[in-house]
Structures are given as structure tokens and as C-alpha cells.
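dumping this here so i dont lose it
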């Protein structure tokens, strides 16, 4: 067997795996195969789509959301971030080796399209987590700010909604405080994936999200760029007033790289006599990346 024949055979086997898995793909759940196989298949087809333009935008968005969800499930199953990155690299390499006009890729693309057609037409999705859920909404108003991807949180008597809002999918934290105090600044604190090898998960914490955050010296800190009165449509349920803090868009990308089991901190700082005082809310990462991809 020549090198070219051997190489072609490897490409065919990789695409054959994608064909087999896509035929039984269930975008909302990982049912047909283990999470790693699902991640490999969806990463391969997403990469092939990016290079060969295999699908219309709605299918591409649905496939990418399912890929992100499979990535989260693979991490939840116990794979390390390095193992997941290596698997994704192999899948992208396999996709790069396939000719855009190959019969195998055409068959795989047809089956992926069939599997994701219904999913691509959905206007909303809920992504349950271990503690909290993300709600994604594709519908958007040209004049009224609405949540596109959101998760509520309560911390003491105070309440928060965090996520992406409006046509621009701005990263916002909208909060209301029981005693009427007004923080002068808000910060997002999350794990720095470039300086750590994985999440900090305290096995004793159970469903307490404060036990799923990194130490400060292993974290990225993003300070809100703007503070303003929150529109009524973005307030926590039942609230009449509140503050909206807008963060850099880089927060969304940084969150998309995290392990779904960990949490991020939303820290509000209040002026005091001498040192500032803070209150902290916690947001479960969960399937944030999948919900974000669903909106594209």
C-alpha cells in the first residue's frame, strides 16, 4: 500500500466515524455514543464546514452548539482539558485532510444536515446544569433590550441575572440590592485557562458554587466598563429597579473555554470607610459555550 493510499484510508475511516455518529445524533443530548466520540464527530464536521461551506448558517450554528455541548459532556465525564484539546486537534486534522468534493464527506454532510434540521429551527433552548440553567433565545428586538442567554442567581437578599443581551450580545450583569445600596464597580472573576491545568472543584462543596471557583492568583479579573440603570426588560423577575454592568466581550470567550462544572464569580464593590466591601454572586459555567453558539 502506498503512502497516499494509506493516508486516504485514514481520512475515510475518520469520516466514516462521523457518518455513523451523525446518523444517530441527538443534538440536545449525548445518547448514541460516548461523549468523546460525539465531540470528535462534531468537531470534525464543524471544521469541515468551516473549510468547505457544507451547511447553511442555521445548520452550522446548530452543529457548533452541539459540538460545544459535547465538549462539556466530555469534560464532565472526567477527561482532562489537555486530552480534550488533543482530541479536537485530531478531529480538525482529519477534516483538513478530506477533499471538499469527496463522496464520504458529502454523505456525512447530508446525514448531519438531516439530523440537525429540526434543531436548527428552534427559537429557544434551555441548557440544564448541575445547579442552574442557561436559557437561550434566538429572537431579538430592534428596539427593546432582551436577554439572549441568561442565568439568574440569588446571593443573600440580593438578586442577579447574568448573560448576553440585545442584538450585540453584550455581556451584562443586572442586579438589584435589597437595601438599596449601589455598588460603584462590578468584576467578573474566572479561571485563567492558560495558567492552570483544570478546574478547582472541592468535592465537599456539593451544589455550593462557591466551592467551584479558582483562587484569585489563578484567575482572570474583568472590570465592568459601564454602569447604568437597567432596562425593565432585563431586571430579575419582580424587580422594579436595578443596575446593569457591562463587561468586555472577552468575558464571553473566556467563559466558553472553562469546564462546565466550575463557576465564575460576579463581585460587587461598595464604598466604605477605609476599605471597600464586597458582595459575591456565583454563576455556574454549565453549557454557556453551547448556548452562545446556539445564538450565532
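and the seq i came up w/
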Amino acid at each position: 500500500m502506498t503512502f497516499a493510499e494509506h493516508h486516504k484510508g485514514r481520512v475515510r475511516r475518520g469520516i466514516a466515524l462521523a457518518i455513523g455518529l451523525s446518523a444517530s445524533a441527538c443534538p440536545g443530548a449525548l445518547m448514541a455514543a460516548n461523549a468523546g466520540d460525539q465531540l470528535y464527530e462534531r468537531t470534525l464536521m464543524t471544521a469541515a464546514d468551516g473549510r468547505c461551506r457544507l451547511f447553511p448558517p442555521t445548520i452550522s450554528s446548530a452543529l457548533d452548539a452541539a459540538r460545544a455541548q459535547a465538549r462539556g459532556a466530555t469534560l464532565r465525564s472526567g477527561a482532562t482539558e489537555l486530552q480534550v484539546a488533543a482530541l479536537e486537534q485530531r478531529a480538525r486534522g482529519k477534516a483538513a485532510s478530506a477533499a471538499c468534493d469527496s463522496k464520504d464527506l458529502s454523505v456525512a454532510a447530508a446525514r448531519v444536515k438531516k439530523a440537525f434540521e429540526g434543531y436548527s429551527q428552534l427559537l429557544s433552548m434551555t441548557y440544564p446544569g448541575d445547579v442552574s440553567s442557561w436559557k437561550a433565545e434566538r429572537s431579538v428586538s430592534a428596539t427593546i433590550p432582551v436577554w439572549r442567554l441568561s442565568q439568574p442567581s440569588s446571593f443573600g437578599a440580593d438578586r442577579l441575572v447574568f448573560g448576553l443581551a440585545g442584538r450585540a450580545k453584550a455581556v451584562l450583569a443586572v442586579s438589584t440590592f435589597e437595601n438599596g445600596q449601589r455598588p460603584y464597580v462590578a468584576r467578573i472573576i474566572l479561571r485563567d485557562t492558560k495558567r492552570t491545568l483544570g478546574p478547582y472543584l472541592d468535592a465537599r462543596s456539593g451544589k455550593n458554587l462557591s466551592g467551584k471557583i479558582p483562587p484569585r492568583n489563578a484567575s482572570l479579573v474583568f472590570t465592568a466598563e459601564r454602569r447604568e440603570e437597567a432596562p425593565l426588560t432585563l431586571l430579575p423577575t419582580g424587580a422594579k429597579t436595578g443596575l446593569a454592568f457591562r463587561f468586555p466581550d472577552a468575558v464571553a470567550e473566556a467563559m466558553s473555554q472553562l469546564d462546565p462544572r466550575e463557576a465564575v464569580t460576579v463581585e460587587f464593590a461598595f464604598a466604605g470607610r477605609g476599605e471597600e466591601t464586597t458582595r459575591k454572586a456565583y454563576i455556574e459555567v454549565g453549557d454557556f459555550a453551547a448556548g452562545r453558539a446556539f445564538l450565532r
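The chain has two domains: 3-121, 126-294.
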